[in-house]
Every structure is written in C-alpha cells, then in structure tokens.
Automatic annotation (TrEMBL):
Pfam families: GerE, Response_reg. It comes from the Bacteria. Residues 144-209 form the HTH luxR-type domain. GO terms for molecular function: DNA binding. It comes from Amycolatopsis deserti. Residues 10-123 form the Response regulatory domain. The gene is uvrY. This is DNA-binding response regulator. CDD domains: LuxR_C_like, REC_NarL-like. PROSITE patterns: HTH_LUXR_2, RESPONSE_REGULATORY. The modification 4-aspartylphosphate is found at residue 60. Keywords: DNA-binding, Phosphoprotein. SMART domains: HTH_LUXR, REC.
Amino acid sequence: MAANEGGPIRVGVIEDHPLYRYAVANVLSEARDIELGPVAESVAAFASSQEPAGCVVVLDLKLRGVTDSQAVQEVVRMGHKVLVVSAHAGQDEVLGAISAGARGYLSKDADGDDILHAIREIAAGNSYVSPTLASYLLDSTRPRAGVGSVLSDRERQVLSLVAAGERDADIAEAMSISVRTVRSYLDRIRDKTGRRRRPELTRLAIEEGMA
C-alpha cells in the first residue's frame, strides 16, 4: 500500500551502511502507522524490487552506483517521495537534494523519532528539513528576494533567453543589441540576484516563471 489516506505509510530504505540500514529498518518496523517496504543498499537494488509508486523512501546520498542528487532524481522519477538522511549535511548537499526533488532532509544525528516525524510530514504532503539545516534554505532564497521587481524588463528578457540555452551572441541577435550589452545585462543580473554561473541563472529563471 502506498503512502495515502486511510492506510499505513509505506516506507522504503536505501542505505549502504549495513548497521545503519538495519537500525532504520528496525525503527520503521516498530512504528504502528508504518509498513516497511524494500530495504536496499543501492538505487539499482531498490529499483529491482519494483515497488509501486507512492512510498516514502529514506535515502542516503553517498551510495554505490547512482549517488548524491542523481540518486534523489532517480527515486523521484520512480514516483516516490524522498527523505534524505545523510551524514553529509552541508549547504551544497542540502540544496542539491532539495533541488533534485527531495521532500525532506535530516542529518544522521537525527534520532528515530525525528525520522518518523519527518516521514509522517512528507506522507501528509508536506516537506520537512531539520531546524539546523533549514537556515541553508533560507539563505538560498535571500539573494532572489524580490527578483521580479529588481530586474528590469530587458534583464528579465536576457535571463529568459539564458534559460532557453541561448549563447550571448544569439541573445544579442534576438534583442538587436551588442554582445557587450548582453554581458553588461548579465553582470547586472548576477549582482542583483547573487547567482553567478549560467546553470544557477537558468534555475532562477525557472523558479521565477521566466523560462
């Protein structure tokens, strides 16, 4: 049974450390409202179980084979909700996992009650990040606060073309301006948003509905 109304919450585990894998599975099996699903050491092993979509998956990031944000994407693509529980809980890991589709993130300092609470929140359709990690998400949003109002129409147009994969020369041609002017706009966008690299600008355009 999937994690839905009226029934137990179906939960799988993907963790390559045997002792921790056993401990998490044990915590889950003892919870009355949880039905333990596949317990695997890798994304590939979990996929081979052919678990129906809709379960909550407790996922470590540092795995054999598919790993990090790619592991999150693979499990999300299978139709599951991901709760990352990882010993690696730096800003890059947290933001990367959330951007890849994870619904929650805990460090391995979390105890069993923390994991169960996060699972229940995620199964209910919410997201959950431990308070100690939530500051990373807040920090990541600050540079884009009010982006819609701080960017000019021309800057928004440049940003949307960047998100479409256009090169500076293509943007210049499309907007009937020089490449130098395009780069000037890009410098202003970077200064206003705090986003420096092109992939970050593309993500910003998607987040702001400009893509």
